[in-house]
Write a structure and sequence with these properties.
alpha+beta, 185 residues, elongated, 2 domains, eight-stranded antiparallel sheet, Immunoglobulin-like, 37% strand, two-stranded antiparallel sheet
């Protein structure tokens, strides 16, 4: 500890006073003033570490390619609408059963592709190939762990048309899907 000597004069008397001063690291004001910038540095370091080490799968690098892809998807929706396609998906049991209907005649495909997209976790996305059965329907084994909200699209092998929608699984009632009719802007 350091001693500070002060001298004061009053009425012609001299008083010597010694005060003991603590070192800088024992001063409470020092720590009070240091806590705010110190916490800012810690929080910024934490935020930068999280931003660098985690993967954000929802951000795409090629925006122009995505834009052209959206127009191709609209063309597939229009084709499904022109063919008058509709489907009925039954998620009950251990199998996924699909029945296709069309206003433009009987449509037979060697197989169909059902893509299931989780809204926030891309690692949970699923692609299911539906194979034809003897009774004109399509069937596939139902994957496990499909609880919650899902976006889906149903496509033909040539990727010429698409039926899309959204559902909550597991579903006790069959899901009806119809081609979307878009308004022209």
């Amino acid at each position: 500890m350091e001693a500070i000597r002060t001298q004061s004069t009053g009425n012609n008397m001299m008083i010597n006073e010694e005060k003991m001063v603590a070192p800088w690291f024992r001063q409470p004001w020092f720590w009070f003033l240091l806590i705010f910038p110190g916490m800012s540095v810690i929080w910024c370091t934490l935020a930068i570490t999280v931003a660098v080490t985690t993967d954000n799968a929802m951000v795409t690098d090629d925006y122009s390619k995505e834009g052209r892809g959206i127009n191709a998807e609209f063309a597939r929706d229009d084709q499904a609408s022109a063919m008058g396609l509709s489907a009925r998906l039954d998620f009950s049991g251990e199998r996924l059963m699909l029945t296709m209907d069309s206003t433009s005649g009987d449509q037979q495909f060697p197989y169909l592709i059902l893509n299931l997209f989780h809204p926030t976790l891309s690692e949970r996305d699923r692609t299911i190939q539906l194979n034809p059965t003897d009774d004109g329907r399509y069937s596939a084994a139902l994957p496990r762990n499909l609880d919650g909200r899902w976006y889906f699209d149903l496509r033909d092998p040539g990727n010429q048309w698409r039926l899309k929608g959204e559902t909550h699984l597991p579903s006790l009632t069959p899901l009806e899907i119809h081609a979307e009719v878009r308004g022209r802007e």
